[in-house]
Write a structure and sequence with these properties.
The protein is 69% helix and 1% strand. Strands 1-2 form a two-stranded antiparallel sheet. It has 407 residues and is mainly α.
Length: 407
């Protein structure tokens, strides 16, 4: 049993039976539902038989959408909203949306060097710890998007440079919008990043943009599509690997890590392990890198091993590996936050609420806005809120207050 806010208990083992019942009611085969939900047939069978739990809220929502279930109570057995309670969109999201969907008609092209500096400064603001990184980046993105549109009016070599700048900007839009739960906008940004990189005829940047596309597809539960994008990008890099630069090897390694997580989410443990091992070999050659703001190296491989174990349901193994990681050495705050969240989810599964709260406190210290805008962090807080014992509440309550979650 998992306890949610308000003391409600969810029988996780019964969810699979309810999914099977709704599938039959809609006249779908297991294979058809698996395809619609973006998981493998073997995973689908395990979920319906109770051998594998639906442990991610996003996957539960996806099943509800595919099965045309309007009330999650029909799958969980308890009243539960379609989104984690209390989640609010970021106030800058609408301005970013307008910049992405309403093209600017007038203006002078920006200075290319100045635009490059602005893009890099905004990426640095996103990857460094700050109490206001969501707000800072959210304010800058509309300006950068419009500047890139104006820059794309250039011709010849300047246009290729503008295309590279646009791809990097759209990749940042993809990252920021995904974190604040604007998945459709994130997918649009990822698509534009790929198109700009391909038009610029830059294979490394195109591979990085494909990695971004796979990230948002995976977050939407479209695991097969995420794997397909990552594998295709790896194949597209193969003709360029005769004398590869460290940058190219790092991007290739990042794609293998993306493929490993996608494979794990689809219950392909052998493929996930193989891609982790390939990524580890590449990380040994290039060391710690941050090409195209992807952050790749031995540390990131270690963090992905934790994530893969979590996705495969190997919680004890994931926590054992996590406890051996010196996370303070990770260069980007986003990777550290992901590590803390993975560990918090693992401790939550093992009923170690003290450790889970400790990991969430680390998230709060590095990026307080995460508690207000990250769907996954808020979901974890809600689960703790619903079952926390009196001894945990003094440490948990300040986090709930910071997240503006109701008592």
């Amino acid at each position: 049993m998992t306890t949610l806010g308000g003391g409600m208990e969810v029988d996780e083992w019964a969810i699979g039976r309810r999914i099977a019942s709704h599938r039959a009611r809609r006249g779908l085969t297991q294979e058809e539902l698996a395809g619609l939900a973006g998981i493998s047939l073997s995973m689908m069978k395990k979920i319906e038989s109770g051998d594998r739990l639906v442990t991610r809220f996003s996957q539960l929502v996806l099943f509800a959408q595919v099965l045309r279930v309007k009330d999650l109570q029909e799958l969980t057995g308890v009243p539960l909203p379609m989104m984690p309670g209390g989640h609010r969109g970021h106030p800058a999201a609408e301005a970013v949306r307008r910049a992405m969907t309403v093209r600017s008609a007038a203006g002078d092209p920006p200075d290319p060097d100045g635009l490059s500096r602005d893009i890099e400064q905004t990426w640095r603001a996103w990857q460094e710890p700050s109490a206001f990184r969501y707000s800072i980046v959210g304010q800058r993105l509309p300006v950068l998007v419009r500047a890139c549109e104006l820059a794309l009016r250039a011709r010849g070599g300047e246009r290729r440079r503008a295309l590279r700048q646009a791809s990097k900007t759209y990749q940042l839009v993809r990252t920021w919008t995904k974190r604040v739960g604007e998945f459709e906008l994130s997918l649009l940004a990822a698509d534009r990043a790929v198109s700009a990189a391909l038009d610029a005829d830059d294979p490394d940047l195109a591979a990085a943009a494909a990695w971004n596309m796979a990230m948002i597809l995976s977050a939407q539960g479209k695991t097969d599509s995420a794997r397909e994008v990552a594998v295709r990008a790896i194949e597209d890099l193969q003709p360029h690997l005769e004398e590869p630069s460290d940058q190219r090897l790092a991007v290739l390694g990042g794609l293998h890590l993306m493929g490993a997580v996608a494979a794990a989410r689809d219950d392909h443990a052998d493929e996930a392990q193989r891609r982790l091992d390939l990524a580890e070999q590449l990380a040994g050659r290039v060391g710690e890198t941050n090409h195209f703001r992807m952050v790749f190296g031995p540390m990131n491989v270690a963090l992905h091993r934790v994530s893969v174990a979590m996705e495969l349901g190997r919680t004890r193994q994931a926590l054992s590996m996590a406890e051996r990681v010196t996370i303070e050495k990770a260069s980007a705050v986003e990777r550290r936050l992901t590590y803390h969240l993975d560990a918090a989810r693992g401790y939550l599964r093992k009923d170690n609420d003290f450790a889970a709260v400790h990991m969430l406190q680390r998230i709060y210290r590095e990026s307080p806005e995460e508690l207000r805008h990250s769907v996954q962090v808020r979901e974890t807080l809600r689960q703790l809120q619903g079952r926390a014992k009196a001894a945990v509440l003094p440490d948990l309550q300040p986090l709930l207050t910071a997240a503006s979650l109701p008592d």
